[in-house]
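Comment thread on ticket #2218

A.B. wrote:
> Attaching the input chain for the structure job we discussed in standup.
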Amino acid sequence: MFLIVGQGNPGLQYARTKHNVGFWVLDRLASNFRHKGKAFIAEIEFLKASGEQVSGLLVKPTTFYNATGEAVAPLARFYKVPPERILVIHDELDLPPGRLRFKVGGSNAGNYGLESISTHLGTRDFHRLRIGIGKPPTPEEGASWVLTGFPPDLALLMDKVIQTAAEAAQTWATEGIDACQKKFNGLNLAEPPKRAESEQAN
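C.D. wrote:
> Ran it. Output below, let me know if you need it in another format.
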């Protein structure tokens, strides 16, 4: 059993904001969410290369972003999911749009939603998938930056990022964190794809 948690705020007024990219990823993976406790959840199964199925829950908390732990911890306890089988997908100011990166534990870097999860789980050792949203023009604009949407010229890029993140979450569930870090941490989806050597020679 695993939990894949999207960070975000409930309500239509927040649906397309940068803070809700975690929800966007989960929506690529399932549509049959139902209300349970302080979250909307969807049951999901992925198939490993060996043919073995792994099952888990997609979790969209109905708490606000900074109180994510209030939704995650009860589900983790009820389903007996250890921290290393919890993946939290969230927006990341320190990465530019087009980048995503897996991380295990460590500092929450001022992300109050991650801090809430750490507090309620009693550990920081859960896994994270960080989705780059870029920095605001000034540090003082951080709060408003995450609660606004992406500009139209980034729409296609972010669609590609969200789709790749959904595939990455599935890889995490079936192959583990090490495989994900090797496969996805070096990607820069904002760059044009590299041409093969045979194409460059023509």
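A.B. wrote:
> Thanks. Noting for the ticket: Residues 155-175 form the longest helix (21 residues).
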